[in-house]
Amino acid sequence: MKQGEPTVSDILADARRRFAEAGIVDPSTDARLLIAGVLRFSTTEMLTRGGDLLGEERASFVEAAVKRRLAHEPVHRILGEREFYGLPLSLSSETLEPRPDTEILVDTMIPYLRDLAKAEGHIHILDLGTGTGAICLALLSECPEASGVGSDISADALRTAKSNAERNGLQDRFTTIQSNWFERIGGSFHAIVSNPPYIASGVVHDLAPEVTKFDPAAALDGGSDGLDAYRAIAKDAAGFIRPSGVVGVEIGYDQRSDVAGVFEAHGFKLLESVKDYGQNDRVLVFAIT
């Protein structure tokens, strides 16, 4: 970086260069998002305030964040939050960082929920392994006739989900329960949704360090073949889904047939299969046969 008090443009260029040298996949985007987040600048301000001098204190905050990114900590982990389906969501150590591909599950489920709401009025959603609450809260924000339960085995995740519900004004329609899948769940639901752990145990260590070092292992490891969570959900879901209800799950890119087989073995039929932005299978929707 050039001598003297740095400007916003200076630190942005410096971060971009260092990220590129470190082999970070998208150095320009990461530098812009990170610095904008630390400085609390909008996208427009990053363009219009490039000549602003930072001052020693703010420059030191940015430098600390840049060093964390160089150690492979993801940008949104550093900032402590990420937007999902238009909702700002806080992250914590035991929550998976919501990814854009998971928004496809929300997109897919909304028409089913709206049809159910037209037919039945109020509808009830269960989000298994809720983490930040992202999926359930996004569905509640799009479907005012719905209420939801977010369950998770992690108390930390449930605290985060509850806080995110409050942050987005959805606390009156969202409750949490600590449960290992259906173990402590009661009642019945019009929709059950989940983005469960689906990475095979043997390949978890091959994932990028941004994932293996910072996402919770319990949210990644799906057992020896990656299907343990789907077996647990499919085994008991029929006892908690209403006759007209639907089950929507996110899957790994090569799991469509296997996951469909797991659910079909427990009396479900596949209603819909949806691909992600890379044209890989990503979401399956089931109903009771």
3D architecture notes:
With 289 residues, the chain is α/β, with parallel strands linked by helices. The protein folds into two domains: 8-79, Helicase, Ruva Protein, domain 3, CATH 1.10.8; 84-288, Vaccinia Virus protein VP39 (Rossmann fold), CATH 3.40.50. 40% of the residues lie in helices and 20% in strands. The protein has helices spanning 8-21, 27-39, 43-48, 56-70, 75-79, 103-120, 134-142, 155-167, 209-212, 228-237, 256-264; strands at 81-84, 87-90, 123-128, 146-152, 174-178, 189-194, 241-250, 268-275, 281-288. A seven-stranded mixed β-sheet has the order 5-4-3-6-7-9-8, with helices on both faces. A two-stranded antiparallel ribbon has the order 1-2. The longest helix is centred in the middle third of the chain and has 18 residues, at 103-120. It is elongated, with a radius of gyration of 21 Å. The mean pLDDT is 95.
Number of DSSP strand runs: 9
SSE order, one letter for each helix or strand: HHHHHEEHEHEHEEHHEHEE
What CATH architecture of the largest domain would you give?
3-Layer(aba) Sandwich
How far apart, in Å, are the first and last alpha carbons? Answer: 64 Å
Please give the count of helices: 11
The share of residues in extended strands comes to 15-25%
Considering the chains and any ligands shown, give keywords for the structure.
Helicase, Ruva Protein, domain 3; 7-stranded mixed sheet; two-stranded antiparallel ribbon; 9 strands; 2 domains; Rossmann fold; alpha/beta; 289 residues
